[in-house]
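Handout, page 2. Input:
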Amino acid sequence: MDKLIITAAICGAEVTKEQNPNVPYTVEEIVREAKSAYDAGAAVVHVHVREDDGTPTQSRERFRVCMDAIKAAIPDVILIPSTGGAVGMTAEERLQPTELFPEMATLDCGTCNFGDDVFENTMPTMRAFGKRMIENGIKPEYECFEMGHLDTILKMAKKGQVPGDPMQFNFVLGVPGCTPATVKNLCWLVDAIPAGSTWTATGIGRSAFTLAAPTIVMGGNVRVGFEDNLYVSRGVLARSNGELVEKVVRISRELGREIASPAEAREILSLKAR
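Output:
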């Protein structure tokens, strides 16, 4: 079994300081949280960016400033900028980080309910995102919130509309209105991916760690962070993204699985030298 790749989703687009005062907004805060996660054992940082007042943005320039600052602090970390942005953003807005030619970026695999909102990812949008990632040599992390998302993206890959093998999936389970975060659902998804693929599981809210444990045993990788969950344990707000990563590291080592460095993660994920 490969070593465990831990991804830290450090701020997302929706959570606020009112919910947890440690959620980062400014460039300096984003670097602080990225480094706390890296120092705790995360090889990957999933990047959303905010304006200083917390407003979510997909600004190419804001991504450039934040990603350059993270790289200056932790040069070997793998950065996965979001092309999901925030609900209601246009496809053109959301694609801006791909203009920076990152190693990887997320590609959302279908429309779904997102709490009281609708997160729209039409087929034309996904084809446009796939085309951009093929042109820019970016490896997608395919985010699947629903069972049908996986089937959709596999058919698109067969048609050459999105990058193909080896594919990396992130199964985001437990979003209100989407697929519940159960082991049964996770097994269904994992059993359907192509041989040679890699995968990560993200449990939302109270599912963050209850989904992490079976994922570790099954050979998958784990994402945690303020984007997905603000608590380190029931009723206890996490002081940093690093504290959430530390808990995954403890669980993994108790289960006998070691943690991947960024160099090892690049090999596992079949990332090409840039």
